[in-house]
Please model this.
Amino acid sequence: MELAHPETVLLDDPARVAEIAGAVPDPELRVVTIGELGIVRGAELAEDGRVTVTITPTYSGCPAMDAIRDDIRSALAAAGHPDVEVKTVLSPAWSTDMITESGWAALERTGIAAPGASGTPACPRCAHGGQPVTPVLQISRYASTPCQSLWSCRSCLEPFNAIKKL
Amino acid sequence: MSELLALGDDALIAAQRLSEWVSRAPTLEEDVALANIALDQLGAARLLLSTAGDEDELAYLRDGPQFRNCLLAELPLGPARGDLDFAWTMAWLLLLSSAQLLRYTDLAASDDELAAGIGAKTVKESTYHLDHAHQWTLRLGGGTDESHRRVQEALDSLWPYAHELTEGIRDRWLALVEPILAEAGLTRPADRWQPEGGRTGRHTEHLGYLLAEMQSLHRAHPGAQW
Ligand SMILES: [Zn+2]
Model:
């Protein structure tokens, strides 16, 4: 008797594989997925059924990359595919433009600001639709992860992180 | 690929040097900044060393004379070994990151696809490193008499080592660094002696101490993981 794994059929489709890999939460910024951050660049299915997922690092020294590779393998194993290779590519180099709209929305909901068109982010606590933009001050160009900088709002006086333009 | 190895060694040794600041920087923000810059340097080193062989073997199993980093990268970050000095570190980072920025820009434009990919990635990061050193050079140069004295003293001491660091890119490098020194009210040191040897494996005594710290765990427990 042949036992068809219910998910195996779905994995015939590389787009579905990329979707499952992309749904993995970022190990450091748990509110966004690695798909929304633009870290997952694609997926391929070889004729022998082997799956290759391609990812790109946000920063070259990003310590989360090993965890991301493991999480992708676990997610695809859970979807019925234990044989997954995770390949890292550098080109095109990751940039903040690769973050999706839903990614930005999820980051802002957590209090992590977008870099802002002029390079100055808006305070995620004070900046709500239609409100005048409050002045902010950069405290440090580096913050809790390599991809963020640290700011302080001159109105509510709260510190906040912003994604650095890259 | 020997140029990539040299750049990789510069980044690796710089990462190890910068990591000496972790938990010892003057403010929490600066601690985080220096740790992040060290991490970027390590990331660049991993990419560059992987083009030349196994990154772990290259980092942990070579002896001093096999390293190709420039002498500047291995120098202590203060006037004496074990004596960390913040102004000294910022002067060192200014000289180093400006040269790295130019080298990575050239890599990004190279015909080799792999080298170009690494260059495109690292050039963005070293732009931030140079910016960080630039901002601090202005604050230290235009700050108190003491901060000005320390950063000028560091520049005077480190400047000769920039000769080896900037071989082949000297004019472009000066065009990048001289305006920053002028803006900070610092004196551009005169070109005097030109110590070199790192690129051919003749290092200062400082590299041995650094490698002993960096390599001891891997050599005592080969293949160790956590
Ligand atoms: Zn606010």
Q: What stands out?
A: The longest strand of chain A covers residues 40-45. Chain A has a mean pLDDT of 87.
